[in-house]
Design goal:
5-stranded antiparallel beta sheet; 2 helices
């Protein structure tokens, strides 16, 4: 590999979620988000739309893949930055 052609379906964490919220939840750069609250997400757009269903302070189960293994973490939503 190494050419980036075999990216797994999911959304890389790096550019996705407010850094503070991600850190609190235990998300790390390089994690791949597979689903939010049981709903599969494969693109950034899907993820953003999905998160709009929740309010600040909601706790959302997020399925991630890290190092080839899947795990569920609980993400507490913080206020979204302007424009998101």
């Amino acid at each position: 590999g190494g050419d980036g052609a075999t990216i797994p379906s999911g959304v890389a964490v790096a550019s996705v979620i407010d850094a503070t919220a991600a850190a609190q939840a235990g998300l790390e750069v390089g994690d791949v988000i597979r689903s939010v609250d049981g709903d599969k997400v494969t693109t950034m757009e899907q993820l953003v739309v999905r998160l709009r269903f929740f309010a600040v302070g909601d706790v959302v189960d997020v399925l991630i893949e890290r190092g080839g293994a899947e795990q569920t973490i609980q993400l507490t939503l913080l206020e979204r930055p302007e424009g998101v």
